Amino acid sequence: MIREGPVGCAGAGNASGWMQDAEFLLFLQHFKRQVKPIVDQKCLLLLDNHASHISIQAIDFCKENGVVLLSFPPHCTHKLQPLDRAVFGPFKKMINYATDNWIRNHPGRTITI
Predict the structure, then answer these.
(1) What is the pTM (predicted TM-score) of this model?
(2) Which residues form the signal peptide (predicted)?
């Protein structure tokens, strides 16, 4: 899925298709390489309260590397979810638009990654 991604991008997956503790720790390591937080100059990472975000390994990694975790409460309104409003919502809208357009222009063919 990252074959033609930007230089330095990272990806991970597992059989379930859902984020798990190990993949989140890989994300945190990638985040640290990109953002370069340190204990004296912390950075804030906003999370959506997914179970993978609260593993002991992830919390310890963040404490040791100057990453402050802030998790939104579960089932809160979309107005309190900045990523849903500014990133995931627009991204989903564009993916749906591109997919619909491709299907219209390629009738009978199956879309792939």
Answers:
(1) 0.67
(2) none
